[in-house]
Amino acid sequence: MLITLGLLIFGIIVGMFLRGHNGKWVSAVVMATVCILLFVMGVRVGLNEEIIGAIKSTGVISAILFVLGTGTCIVFTWLFTKYVIDRKKSKDSAEGEQDITEEAIPEGGGSGFKDSAIILGCFVLGLVLALTRILPDAFYALDFESYADWVLYAMLLSVGINIGMGDSILALVKKVPRRVLWLPLVALVGTWLGSVLAFLVIKAWGYDLSLQQSATINTAMGYYSLSSILTTKAWGATIGSICLLTNLMRELFTIVCAKPLGRVFGRFASTSSGGATVTDTSLPIILKAEGNGILPAVLYFGIVINIAVPFLLTFFLM
After folding, report:
1. In the Cβ-directed half-sphere of 142, how many Cα atoms lie within 13 Å?
2. Whole-model pTM above 0.85?
3. CA–CA separation, 76 vs 198, rounded Å?
4. Which of 121, 134, 194, 315 has CB 3.0 to 4.6 Å from 69, enough for a Cys bridge?
């Protein structure tokens, strides 16, 4: 996370020096790196026998956990946005408080369904190439994990440059409105309620998954690398695979559906859906969908979630 924030800040500084120049190329670079990252992610998923095995054996269980955990989280965020944040908007405007999360959001702009289709297509292409093994063996022997890291770094740097070149940089460094500070807690409570619902559905399905396991898996909030290791050590490979797949679904869903989520459930829906991933892979998609003005709220949310998740996982695993 420190590397993420460092690259983002450095990119913003570089972008400030480039202000006044044509910045269309930066947006193109952001989109290109996102597509490459999703292609590499697809290849990595296709080559990962653990994930493929989990899809075949427990894919339905993972889907239930993902849909109810993430879905309830999004609904809670929508209710909070509608009845707490937006209800105070007129009062705050009268008092002179500016909601920077709505700053610099272009009318009709953002990442539309076309971009979502392209991004999803890149992931599917990588997945198909990995599963079919139609390319030479040398391709599949490449170190895709390292390549993904470098592409991610390039993406975050270009996102920072894009933000720095904007005219609203001063608005972006203002403090996050006080009412937005509750957003991580709202997202977690919604996720936990969804975990209870998922447990009841899965129990009715006849699968042996405890409420503790259901809550732990969704508490990862997309942090699949750490959570899958911890749950595997605690409950074995099957639960670890379910955890990995559930949280991978959450990340991919946020990247592909950020714009539709914003249209239907409000501007913070994709942030809550992204969970721990909003400080890296899903950040550029959320910014493109909702505008650069939402950056302070997204970074605040991501930092809190990334700090809280390891402690919460430890608590749930006791």
Report:
1. 13
2. no
3. 16
4. 194
